[in-house]
Design a protein that fits this description.
heterodimer, A: about 325 residues, Rossmann fold, six-stranded parallel sheet, 11 helices, about 45% helix, B: alpha/beta, seven-stranded mixed sheet, five-stranded mixed sheet, 13 helices, about 15% strand
């Protein structure tokens, strides 16, 4: 795959933000992985490592004062780039009262409603109608917003996806459906379970334009999302992006990922989304290796502080058990 | 006081709430141009337009989820399921999303939505179109479930359901839509979670809700002829359930029959039966009796389908049993 990285076209501050966001997600995720190993985090924990460019590039193209994000259980990266405090995120993974959901949601259910990050959903494909409903609200209230709805390649065969695209088109809703095709629905390669291997054409059945995007290139993700968002915002038209990406870790922390080869993983590590952007910025003299190291050190420190915050936070009291069931 | 049908009462509740609050919308199959499969939404499209009365494709999971998403973002949708038989297609949305969003988000989100439509047996519809499915919803924390049996209760409870900040499952009945009753012209609300004594009596408590109220009332008249005064407790709300009214009645009559048109296993009837046995144990003069539907899918044949459901005779016999006569 030949990649174009026209970094010179962008403001340095913007590039630095993209780079920093991706590094922060990477370092926080690595920390979460470590903490899982130490049994500080339990249950299912799905890491975003390798896919950072998708959430980073696409969320950079929206305005969270009026736009919305809904995603899957692989939600740490989206929550961070939407502005969730890393300490609050880590505290939720630890199940602490200071977590975003007071320890009731955990890794798969991160919510930051103030920043329009509407979860963090655990049933494959089930949140796609919800995101479509948020878009219906935007249209009904004649607001200027757009919804980004993320899901994996495993969700694309669920009825909820197809039902949602159909309704988004008949009602012309301002939503961008983003399939993060990391190529494995848990342990199953998408080609084994899909009649169509180029997912981006699937939306054509509903009269919605689809496009395949290189998910290792954060600038391409940004540009293509920006176009789709503009179309949604200005013309009220839904669109569909298949963003091809790769996760370095297993489906969840308990998955050793034996269904793929070392060579395949190494091949993707060569196209690491962070290194691709960093190398291009260094080559074009926008930053130095030292600048990058500084950013990286800073993000590592934030991840460490997030763990300290989570460690030092209290468990929720038993009196919270019956809170938040009903409004 | 004007006498209107159950159907008209529901329509009038939606009409008043849509007029009161522009965030209230109605969506579902055939709710607009067709005026509703059972004509509950008749005229609402003309009055409020297609932006607020939204015809959906036949995609229960999809449009139910759309309603929930819109509720999370601030609207107050009413989702009409053509019948509750089709709600099974949408159960994931109701159970995993509507009921859990507030809890999973640590109280950040609320889901003000009503899911309504006809539930329970009708006539000549066979197994897939004639079933009482309330148990599936009553089981789930995070939902409220109501099942009014009269036009008066239907209107007052639907208005409360629409104003409630939580997901409310609202059970109607195909055969109940033409039922008539007094409904005042002035506005009123009935709080969710309050049962109603439909008939006072000292000899036996008959607890019921929704459509079986009709046969329970007929049975009570028959019993009266034999000198037995039955007290009828209409639950109206199944979650939350009005324990106080139930216990007060049973403590007065010392005998209890529960009539429920759903299946017997793990049902509202079996749960209320346990509650009464547990909390009125010292007051009971006989074991609690249940009258439910037979534990079979609904047959098409009319004689058979009637034999499946609670009847005056079955209720009569259950009352005689708890009274040892």
């Amino acid at each position: 795959m030949s990649r174009v990285f026209p970094v010179e076209k962008y403001d340095k501050g913007f590039l630095l933000k993209l780079l920093r966001d991706m590094v922060l997600v990477r370092r926080v995720e690595e920390k979460a992985g470590q903490m899982y190993g130490l049994q500080k985090i339990g249950g299912f924990c799905h890491l975003y490592i390798g896919q950072e460019a998708v959430a980073t590039g696409s969320v950079a193209a929206i305005d969270l004062t009026k736009d919305y994000v809904l995603t899957t259980y692989r939600d740490h990266g989206h929550a961070l780039v939407c502005g969730m405090d890393p300490g609050v995120l880590m505290a939720e993974l630890f199940g602490k009262i200071t977590g975003c959901a007071r320890g009731k949601g955990g890794s798969m259910h991160l919510f930051d409603v103030e920043n329009h990050m509407y979860g963090g959903h655990g049933i494959v494909g089930s949140h796609i109608p919800l995101a479509t409903g948020v878009a219906l609200k935007i249209k009904y209230k004649e607001e200027d917003g757009v919804v980004l709805c993320y899901f994996g390649d495993g969700a694309i065969h669920q009825g909820a996806f197809h039902e949602s695209l159909n309704m988004a088109k008949i009602w012309n809703l301002p939503i961008v459906y983003i399939c993060e095709n990391n190529q494995y629905g848990m342990g199953t390669n998408y080609e084994r379970v899909s009649a169509v291997h180029e997912f981006y054409i699937m939306s054509n059945s509903y009269g919605i334009p689809g496009k395949q995007v290189d998910g290792m290139n954060v600038l391409e993700v940004y540009e293509e999302t920006k176009k789709a968002v503009k179309q949604a915002r200005e013309e009220g038209l839904p669109s569909f992006l298949e963003i091809k990406t790769y996760r370095y870790r297993g489906h969840s922390m308990s998955d050793p990922a034996k269904y793929r080869t070392r060579e395949e993983l190494d091949e993707y590590r060569q196209q690491d989304p962070i290194l691709l952007l960093k190398n291009e910025m260094v080559e074009k003299n926008i930053i130095t290796e030292e600048d990058y190291k500084k950013i990286d050190d800073e993000c590592k420190a934030i991840a460490t502080q997030a763990v300290e915050f989570a460690e030092n936070s209290q468990e929720p009291g038993l009196e919270t058990l019956y809170e938040d069931v009903l409004a | 006081m004007p006498i209107i049908t159950y159907r008209e009462a529901l329509r009038s509740a939606m009409d008043e709430e849509m007029a009161r609050d522009e965030n209230v919308i109605l969506l579902g199959e055939e709710v607009g141009q067709y005026d509703g499969a059972y004509k509950v939404s008749q005229g609402l499209l003309d009055k409020y337009g297609p932006k607020r009365v939204i015809d959906t494709p036949i995609t229960e999971e999809g449009f139910t989820g759309v309603g929930i998403g819109a509720a999370m973002a601030g609207l107050r949708p009413i989702v009409e399921w053509m019948t509750f038989n089709f709600s099974i297609m949408a159960l994931d949305q109701v159970i995993n999303n509507a009921a859990k969003m507030r809890y999973m988000s640590g109280g950040q989100l609320k889901v003000p939505i009503v899911f309504r439509g006809p539930n329970g047996p009708a006539e000549y519809l066979a197994a897939q179109h004639s079933q009482a499915l309330q148990t599936l919803f009553v089981h789930i924390p995070g939902l409220k479930v109501v099942a009014p049996a009269t036009p008066y209760d239907a209107k007052g409870l639907l208005k409360s359901a629409i104003r409630d900040d939580n997901p409310v499952v609202f059970l109607e009945g195909e055969l109940m839509y033409p039922w008539k009753g007094e409904v005042p012209e002035e506005e009123y609300l009935i709080p969710i979670g309050k049962a109603d004594i439909k008939r006072e009596g000292n000899d036996v408590t008959i607890i019921t809700y929704s459509k079986p109220l009709l046969v329970v009332e007929q049975a009570a008249k028959e019993l009266e002829k034999q000198g037995i005064q039955a007290e009828i407790v209409d639950l109206r709300s199944l979650r939350p359930i009005d324990e106080e009214t139930i216990y007060n009645s049973v403590k007065k009559t010392n005998r209890c029959v529960i009539v429920d048109e759903s299946w017997p296993m793990v049902s509202v009837a079996s749960h209320v039966g346990w509650m009464v046995s547990r909390y009125c144990f010292d007051y009971l003069d006989a074991p609690v009796e249940l009258v439910t539907s037979e534990d079979v899918p609904m047959p098409y044949n009319h004689k058979l389908e009637l034999a499946v459901q609670p009847s005056v005779e079955k209720i009569f016999n259950a009352v005689k049993k708890v009274m040892y006569i």
